[in-house]
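The material for today's practical consists of a large collection of protein records. There is nothing in a record beyond a sequence line and a structure line. As an example, a complete record with its sequence and its structure tokens follows:
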Amino acid sequence: MTSRVEHTDVGAYALGLLEEDDRHAFEAHLLGCAPCRAELSDLSGMASVLSGIGPVEDYGAPSPEPVIDLLQRKRRTDRKTRRGTFVIGMAAAVTLVAGGLTIGTQLSADDVPQIAQGHGNHMGPAEQFYADGTPIEGKGVDGVTGGLVVESKAWGTHAALKLAGVKGPLECELVSVGKSGERRVMTGWSVPPAGYGVPGSPDPLYMHGGSATPIKEIDHFEVVTSTGKKLLTISA
């Protein structure tokens, strides 16, 4: 047993293999180590996976009790052996899952998350909110397209904007326009020279914004440039 903390302890910690002193030391280490926290999050489900995998019976093998006792004593006296046991267990678990082991749900090639297939599919909060909502399409100028997903909040109106067909450099703002004519800036941003949703830069822009004006008091929304040009108008 030792209080020295290493990054490789994250796997042993996830499976509950660290002794008490080592566990406390590693938990203190986690507070200041973002990579370890990220890796621990990735391994959060592995402990439950491994706990559900039973041993394969081999009637010709000796009684498991002496073997288990030997492994426990070896783990207490040799942290490297413990880590090695963890790596072997992880490899076995991955092999079983890859071979079609059903754990909770049946996996198929289509069910595997894109991130696991190496493609990646990370949506930011604004894009996720937009994708989950019902967009209101706007009317743009000069090839600009986009829309809003809005929701009522106790403090006013929350909106997620999708904007495409715009080239930079530009400075823009999303503005709520009340039925009284009151204008409130909800959010602002810069458009780089490459632009958004255009050839060579096909990804649209997603932005969050908020207005203190309640939805029922908003007439429409506008995307305008810093020079006052109106790029997109969205009805409330």
User: Anything to note?
Assistant: Helices lie at 9-14, 20-31, 34-42, 46-51, 64-77, 79-98, 125-132. Confidence is low (pLDDT under 50) at residues 51-59, 81-120.
